[in-house]
Design a protein that fits this description.
four-stranded mixed β-sheet, alpha/beta, seven-stranded mixed β-sheet, 15 strands, binds pyridoxal-5'-phosphate
């Protein structure tokens, strides 16, 4: 495709695919040449209601005409509405709003340090996170992100982080000291390739956190907002965290992150401890309120569960046919398919071939196809993806 603009003034941090998408509706996107794509990326787990959902469009139109922004120095009713919606549907008691995932993680790190300092002692500022985790790219979030390829070249790292293998309860137990303030985990690791921990893991970590008086912080940035079939992924684990962090799907594509805090740490932040100019402004709060009410009112969670199960079943059928498919895993519509790179030399080719079939999918860790479609897709859309995967896989072996 001939692009209208080149990227010579854009910082070289991405290597974008040269398609120019200009319009979206539901699970579909159109490029400038009029080609229609089925979008199984959805902004990477952002557009959970699909593109231009009428309820979200209506809410932001109405809000933009009325009031886009005022400072948090003033009362923002829409922010109170979205905070109440989140707290009524979760363990949360208090919310702080930021503008992205990493920024909300930064707030969580500050909260954890102050929790340790004020409730345990001045050295109790250490935080445990998991190998392969992803919590964002800013200084604190990057230190929490235990991936050498992300941290390398940007040291010295924010101190106080300790890393343990993901899914390993004993490793958590061994890493905890009297100076541990918190443990930050993803309920399912997203960027690391849809790694689902054993069922006993989160309850086990919960127990350790209780015994040692440390905060269990769940990074639900990718798993939250219905992605795994419940509004928040922790709901299915039988436990509640002390803190959770939201972003991605929270405001339907408008930049918003949230720190959601339960009883154990609800009083840790006091005026002056943290702030954000844009966080939770009337505009994004209106978008988020429309997103969460639509998810709850329109049977989105049930659909996600049902279609997700069907999708995994169908992907497992493909696995029987192609032995380079190592594993199919995931929950709801957060699904990964791990490929054997001994057979599939370059998994990027599969993503490229799928795009030629007018289907957008994504690749993580060079070998795991990741599927994060809008939660409104149905079996028909899944069948389309399966048929194309079958064709593309047949071509490459
Ligand atoms: C995307 C993501 C982040 C970072 O969010 P940004 O908005 O890109 O800063 C953090 N944690 C998880 C689990 C994510 O998926």
């Amino acid at each position: 495709m001939n692009l209208k603009y080149d990227y010579h003034n854009i910082m070289n941090t991405y290597s974008p695919i040269s398609i120019e998408l200009e319009r979206g509706e539901g699970p579909y996107l159109w490029d400038v040449e009029g080609d229609k794509y089925l979008d199984f990326v959805a902004g990477i787990a952002v557009m959970n209601l699909g593109h231009s959902h009428p309820k979200v469009v209506e809410a932001v139109k109405e809000q933009a005409e009325r009031l886009v922004h005022v400072s948090n120095l003033y009362y923002i009713p829409k922010q109170a509405v979205i905070a109440e919606l989140i707290c009524d549907t979760s363990f949360g008691e208090k919310c702080f709003f930021a503008n992205s995932g990493a920024e909300a993680i930064e707030a969580a790190i500050k909260l954890a340090r102050k929790f340790g300092l004020t409730k345990k002692g001045e050295d109790a500022i250490e935080i445990i996170t998991a190998d392969g985790s992803f919590h964002g790219r800013t200084m604190g979030a990057m230190a929490a992100t235990a991936q050498p390829k992300i941290q390398s070249g940007f040291g010295p790292l924010t101190p106080g982080f300790h890393y343990v293998p993901y899914g390993d309860l004993q490793a958590v137990e061994e890493a905890v000291t009297e100076n541990t303030a918190a443990i930050i985990l993803e309920p399912i690791q997203g960027e690391n390739g849809i790694i689902v921990p054993p069922e006993y893991y989160l309850p086990g970590v919960r127990e350790i956190a209780n015994t040692e008086n440390i905060l269990l912080i769940l990074d639900e940035i990718q798993t939250g907002m219905g992605r795994t079939g419940t509004l928040f992924a922790y709901e299915d684990s039988g436990i509640e965290p002390d803190v959770m962090v939201l972003a991605k799907g929270l405001a339907g594509g408008f930049p918003m992150g949230a720190l959601v805090v339960g009883k154990k740490a609800a009083d840790v932040f006091t005026p002056g401890d943290h702030a954000s100019t844009f966080g939770g402004n009337p505009f994004v709060s209106a978008a988020a309120a429309a997103v969460i009410t639509t998810i709850l009112e329109e049977g989105i969670l049930n659909n996600c569960k049902k279609v997700g199960e069907y999708f995994i079943e169908q992907l497992k059928e493909l696995q029987k046919k192609f032995d380079f498919i190592k594993e199919v895993r995931g929950k709801g519509l957060l699904i990964g398919m791990e490929l054997d790179l001994k057979t599939v030399k370059d998994a990027k080719l599969i993503v490229d071939e799928m795009r030629l079939e007018k289907i957008l999918i994504n690749l993580v860790q060079n070998r795991i196809l990741r599927f994060t479609p809008p939660l409104i897709v149905n079996k028909y859309h899944v069948d389309e993806v399966i048929t194309s995967l079958d064709d593309v896989f047949s071509k490459i072996v």
